[in-house]
Amino acid sequence: MTLLAIRDLHHDASHEAMPHTHPQGQLFAVRAGLVSAVADGRRWVMPPGCLGWIPPGVTHGAVFHARTEGLNLYVDEAWSRRYWPDRLRVIRRTPLLTALLDTLRRFDSVPECYALVLADALGREPDQPLNLPMPADPRLAGLAAELLRRPDDDTGLDDWARRLGMTRRTLTRRFAAETGWSVGQWRQQARLLLAMERLAAGAAVTVVALDMGYQSVSAFIAMFKKYLGRPPGAWFDPA
C-alpha cells in the first residue's frame, strides 16, 4: 500500500481545476505562486510558504493566480481518515515541515514512520486566517459576490438592507448566523484574501491597496501585518 504519493506541482497563471473529489487526502505545499480553493462552504487561499490540506472526499475546485510551483501529496484514504485532520486546513510551512517534505521526496515508497511524523507535525500547527465563510442564503450570497467583485465598495448596511429587501437588523443577524462574522469583518477578510491573490499575480502593492479601497498604502500594509504578521513583500517578493 502506498501511504503517500508525491508529485511536483506546476501550473501556469489562471489555470483552473473544476470542482472535483478524490478518495485520497491531498496536501498542497506551495513554494511560489498562490492557490485559491472553494471547498466546505469557504473560500481558501494557499500562498507561498503554506501548506493546504484537503481531506478525502471533499469537493473542491482550485484557481492558480500566478505560475505556481511546489508539491502535491496524495495520502491513502484510510491513513487520511485515521491520522490526518478531518477538515480543510491552511498552515505555515515550518522548518521542520520543510525538512520532512524534502526527506520524503527521496523515497520511492515513504516509510510508515515518516508518514506518521509528518501527520503529527501538521496536527500541531495552528490554522492560518486564510479562509472566508460563504453564506448560503441566496440574497446574502449575492451580497457576498458583490463585495468580492467590488472590494473597494463601501456601501453601508442600511443601503444593502434596502437592496436586499430586509431590515438592517435582519441582515446583520442572518449574515452573522451563516458566516460567524459581521458584514464588516467579512468584508475585511475578503479584501485580505483578494489582495493576496492579486499580489501573487504580480500587481504592485500601491495598486492593490487602492483596489481594495484603502486611502493609503501604509494603512493597507498595516492591515496585512496585523492579520498575517508580515507585510506583503515578505510573502511575495522573489528575494
Characterization of this structure:
The protein is 43% helix and 23% strand. By secondary structure, it is α+β, with helices and mostly antiparallel strands. The protein folds into two domains: 120 residues, Regulatory protein AraC (Jelly Rolls), CATH 2.60.120.280; 103 residues, Arc Repressor Mutant, subunit A. The strands form two sheets. It has a five-stranded antiparallel beta sheet. It has a five-stranded antiparallel beta sheet with strand order 2-7-4-5-10, covered by helices on one side. Helix 2 packs antiparallel against helix 3, helix 5 packs across helix 6 and helix 8 packs across helix 9. The longest helix is centred in the C-terminal third of the chain and has 18 residues. The termini are far apart.
What string gives the helices and strands in order?
Answer: EEEEEEEEHEHHEHHHHHHH
| CATH uppermost class of the largest domain | Mainly Beta
Number of domains: 2
The CATH architecture classification of the largest domain is Sandwich
Q: How would you state the average pLDDT, rounded? A: 92
Number of strands: 10
Structural class: alpha+beta
What is the overall shape? globular
Helix content: 40-55%
Report strand %: 15-25%
Number of helices: 10
Protein name: AraC family transcriptional regulator
GO molecular function: DNA-binding transcription factor activity; sequence-specific DNA binding
Keywords: DNA-binding, Repressor, Transcription, Transcription regulation
InterPro entries: AraC-bd (IPR003313), Homeodomain-like_sf (IPR009057), HTH_AraC (IPR018060), HTH_AraC-typ_CS (IPR018062), RmlC-like_jellyroll (IPR014710), RmlC_Cupin_sf (IPR011051)
